[in-house]
Write a structure and sequence with these properties.
It is globular, with a radius of gyration of 19 Å. The protein contains seven helices and eight strands. Helix 1 crosses helix 4. Strands 1-4 form a two-stranded antiparallel sheet. Strands 2-3 form a two-stranded antiparallel ribbon. A two-stranded antiparallel ribbon has the order 5-8. This is Cytochrome P450. It comes from Brassica oleracea var. oleracea. Belongs to the cytochrome P450 family.
Length: 205
């Protein structure tokens, strides 16, 4: 989980730097819902003690999902059939067949996600009532699907939210001039040149 979580966060911050309006909305959501404390401390909140706070960060949750839709930490999966079967699409699968499906490509298919499939658009995960929109795991395969869904999904999302809140509350982030963001094809979808940024300490209010 460590490698996939760090990979997901790297792409998330890379997309955030390319879409400053998303960063603005996330910062606003954090500041609006951040628990108020009676005393002024260096660390005014603890994520462990404020799980309800993390649950209010719907737009941040949506932005993390959207980043993983476009840049899944594991870009493809492999399955092997025990018995012959017929997929929902009508395709016949023989026993002992190996099936490789590209999660990276699935997340960018217009037939699945709409004409704006290539856009980084966290709003697609927000329902009409302002809550998180549910998508079936067979459509969003980042955490696998069915009985083999990732058991650490909730832990990973919680960890990523904590890290994002801590960084955005304490630092401004700027991409280093001339740095190129592009994927490096391998088992985990790392950035080819990493993510070179400059962090500037934010002044406390």
């Amino acid at each position: 989980m460590r490698d996939t979580t760090s990979t997901a966060l790297t792409w998330f911050f890379g997309l955030l730097l390319e879409n400053p309006y998303v960063e603005t909305k996330i910062r606003h959501e954090i500041n609006t819902n951040l628990p108020k404390t009676a005393t002024s401390q260096e660390r005014p909140w603890s994520a462990i003690d404020h799980k309800e706070f993390l649950n209010t960060l719907v737009y941040l949750h949506a932005a993390l999902y959207e980043a993983m839709r476009l840049y899944p930490p594991i870009p493809f999966e492999r399955k092997t059939s025990v018995n012959s079967d017929v997929l929902p699409s009508g395709h016949k699968i023989d026993a002992n067949s190996t099936i490789i499906y590209p999660i990276y490509a699935l997340g960018r298919m217009r037939s699945v996600w709409g004409e704006d499939a290539l856009e980084f658009k966290p709003e697609r995960w927000i329902s009409e009532t302002g809550g998180l929109r549910h998508e079936p795991s067979s459509k969003f395969l980042v955490f696998n699907s069915g009985p083999r869904s990732c058991s650490g999904k909730h832990l990973a999302m919680t960890a990523m939210k904590i890290i994002v809140v801590e960084i955005l509350q304490n630092f401004d982030i700027k991409l280093d001039k001339g740095h190129k963001i592009e994927p490096k094809p391998r088992l985990s979808l790392h950035m080819k040149h990493g993510l070179r940024v400059t962090l500037t300490k934010r002044c406390s209010a």
